[in-house]
Amino acid sequence: MQAVAEQLGRTTMNETETPTRAEAETYIKSLINKTLRVYATDGRMFIGTFKCTDTDRNVVLSLTYEYRQPSQQKLAEAAAAAASSNSETVKADMTSRYLGLVVIPGEHIVKMEVEEFTSQAATSGGTPTSNDERDQLESHWRLRHFTCL
Amino acid sequence: MQPLDPPKPPPPNISHPGIMAIDITNEFASAIKTLSPGEIIKDDHFALFESVSALEIMDRKMDSGVLSDGESLDEEYDVTRSLLPEEILGIMDQLLCLEEEDFVTNTYERNLLSHLPVSDIKDLLLDAIAELQEVQTAYARDICVALGSRLRLRIAFLDAVDLSITRNDTSENAKLPWVQLSALIIDIENQHALGKPVPEAFSTKLQRRLASTMPPRPMVKLSFEESITHFKRFFQNGNEVIDVLQYTDPQSLLTQKPQPLVFIRTILQNLLFRDMVVLGRFSIRQLLDHDVSLGVLPCGPHFDRSFDDVEVPTDPRNKVASAMEVFRQRIADVYLDLLRMLCQNRCRTRRLLCHHIQEWDMLETDVGEIEERLQEPLREVSQGAYQGEESTYHPLLSWVYLYKLRQMEWVVQLGFELRVYQPDELMGMYYYLKRLASLRAQHTEQVKQTTALREERARQHLKLQKEDSLPSEVAHEFKRSKQHLRVKMLDAACTWEFADGLSLLYLALLRLGLVKPPPRPYGTDALRYELRMRPFARIAYPSRPTYEEFKQETELSDVSTADVLRIAEAAVGAARKGFEAIVHLNRGEAFAINATAHSRWVDNAKDCLRATIAAGVAVSTLKRAYERMRESLGDAEKGKEVDERENTNKVDLLNLKVEIPEPGDGYHDWWIVPKLTRFR
Predict the structure, then answer these.
(1) What is the assigned CATH class of domain A2-145?
(2) Could you give the CA distance from residue B494 to residue B434 in angstroms, rounded to a whole number?
(3) For residue A15, is pLDDT > 60?
(4) Between residues 62 and 101 of chain A, which touch chain B (CB distance below 8 Å)?
(5) How many domains does chain B have?
(6) Domain limits for position B572
(7) Reduced to 3 states, what is the DSSP secondary structure of residue B632?
(8) Do residues B37 and A55 lie in contact, with contact meaning Cβ atoms separated by under 8 Å?
(9) Residue A140: its chain B contacts at CB < 8 A?
(10) Is residue B124 one of the residues assigned to a domain?
(11) What is the mean pLDDT of residues A66-94?
(12) Would the N or C end of chain A have less CB density within 10 A of its end CB?
C-alpha cells in the first residue's frame, strides 16, 4: 500500500489520528505542483497548480481558472433549449475565467480536492471520494450534463 | 506588439473521464495544524515575492469576481436597448475616461480587435459620421456635432499612431493627426455637459466579462476633467515627438529631454530605432560618422567614402576603411543604447547609465587599439590629400572619453534630480561633479585647440592666402564643429563652476552647523562614500578619489570659512555669466532641431540661470551673517579663525534658517540651492 502511495507521489495520512509534524510536512509537500480544486465560500471553484501554503491554510495557486455555476438565467435558457429539442438532459456550461496566480485565504476555503488520474487513484487506497459521492459531486459540477427540472 | 503576459494555459477539462478529484479538505486541515506558527511550505522554485503579485480571492479591491450575498451573476443591463442621443454621448465620454486610464496606468501592448484591419475600423467610423449627418435634422444639432467630434477623435488617433506612415515623412503632414486631436479634445471638453451618464452600462459585472487586464482588476475611475487634462498633454507631446524626424545633427537627438507619458516615449523609440535604422532615413553609419566628425574630427580622412571602394587589402585606404568599419561595429550598440536610455523614465535612465558607463570604459581599450592600427595607414594617405594629421592626436578615443565623462556627470546629476543624496552629502557630490566637469572642460579645450590647428593646416595644404576662405563644404564642417565645441565647452565650464560654488556653499553651511548630518547609528562616512561612488568604482579613468583624498579635498581644512565663501561667490558668479551666454545661443548654435526644442533648451538654461542667481543670494546672505558674527565676537577673537564646530552657541549669532527645497520646488532639478532666511 505504502509503495503504491509513494509511486503516486502522494503520502496517505490517517485522518482520525493527528499526524506527526514530519508526516504532515511530507504530505503537503507531496501535493506541491499538483492540480488542486479549491472551493470558496461564495460558491466559486478555483483550479490551479498548488504552490504554497501556510499555517492559516492560505493557498497559493498558479495558472488558475475560476469556475462558477451557471446562473439561474443561463439554466433557464438551457432548459428551454432542451425542452424545444426534446432532449432529456440539459446542457449548460459553467462560466470560467483565467486568473493566473491567486492566493485564496484560508478563511474562505470550504473544500479542497486534488486531481488524480483515475487509473492510479483506483489502486492507491488513499481517500478517494466514494463513487456515490463523486457522482453527486460531478452532477453538482459537471454541468455539461446537468439534469434540470 | 507582443502581449506582455505569458499565454494562458488551456482551461482544464474538469469533466475529463480519466481524471478524478479526491477530497483532501480534512487531511489538509489537520496537516496544517501541525505546522509551527508562521511556517510556510512551498515549491522550491516558487519565490515568495511572486505571491505579492497574486490576486487575493475575496478581496473586493482585487477580486472583481466576488458576489455579495444573494447577488446574481447575471447582468441586468441590456446592451441592445435603445438609447437617447444624450446617453450615447455620456457613454462615449465615459469610455474616453476608461481609455485614458489605460495610458495613465501604463497598461499597454493590448491591441483591441487585432484581427480587424485598421482600415475597416476607420471605414466603420466614417459610415457612422455619414449616418449622423443624415439624421441631423431629427435630433438636436449640438448633440450631433458632439457625437461627430468623438468619432473624428478616434479616426485621428488611429492615424496618429500609425507610425509606418509617419516615420518616412518629414513634412508637417505627420503632425496633422496630433494637431487635430488637440483641437478635438477641446471641443469634446466643451460639449461634455450635453451628455447624460449611463452608469449601469459600466457596472462591475460588465467589466468582469471584459477582463482586459491580467489579473483582472476592478476599474480605476478617472474623472472626465482629469482625463481631458491627460489627453491634452498626451496630444501635445505626440505633436512634439514628431519633430524628432527633422533630424539634422546627432546632437539634436541628445538635446531632447523627453519626460512625457510612456506611450509617447515608446513612439519616440520606435521612430528612432526601428529595424536598426535611425529615424527611418539615416543609416547608423551616417549617424555615427556625423557625430564623431562633429564632435572631434571635422573633415577627417577617416570618413572618406571613396576608401570603401579600394579592394586591395595592402592599400592604406582599404586599411582605413576597414578599421573604421570595425570601430563603427564596436560602438554602434552602446551608442544607440545611450539614445534609447534617454527615452526611459528618469529612475531607469540613471540605473541604466550606471551600468552603461562601464561599457564605455571598456570601449576605450578597444577603440585605442583600433586607433593605433589606423595611425600608419592614415599617415600614408595623408601624404597626398590629408597632410599633417598629427599622430599624437587620438580623436576616436577622445570622442569615447568625452561621452563617458558626460554620462558620469549625468549619473550624479540625476542623483540630485531623484534626491538620492541627503543634504549633508550635497557638498561631496557637487565636489565630485565639479571634478568630472573640469576634466571634460579640459579635454574639450584640447579638442578645440587641435581643431583650430587642423583647420589652419587645411588652409596651408590648399595654399590659401590669409583672406581666402576654405571651400564652402570644408568651411561649413569646421564651423559647425567649432560651434559644437563652444556649446560643449560652455556646458562643461558652467557645470564645473556651479558645482564648485554649491559644494563650497554646503561646506560653509556644514562648518557653521546650519546643515547637520542626521543621526546614523549604523553608518560611517567612509561606507557612505563607498556606496555613492559605487557606480564609478570600476571606471579605469578617471579613477575615483580615495576616501582620504575625497575628505581632504572637500573639507579644505586649511581654508578659512571666509575664504570658502569668497571662492564660492566667484564660482557662482562665473557660472551665472556662462548660463547667460547659453540662454542667448540661437537655434543653430544650440543644435536644436526646431523652435520647440530650442525653446525648451532655452527654458532649461534659464532655470539654471535662476538657480545661479538664487545661489548667489544664498552665498552673500551667509557671508554677511558670518561677518556680522565675527564682529560681534569682539576684538579678542578678531583675526582668528572661528572654530564653529566647538562654538555652537556662537553659531546662534548667525541668526539664519536654512531650507533645502524638495524635488521640483527648486529652480532646477540638478541644482539644489539652499534658501537662507534671517530669523526675526
Answers:
(1) mainly beta
(2) 10
(3) no
(4) 62-63, 65-68, 71-74, 94-101
(5) 1
(6) 489-680
(7) helix
(8) yes
(9) none
(10) no
(11) 75
(12) C
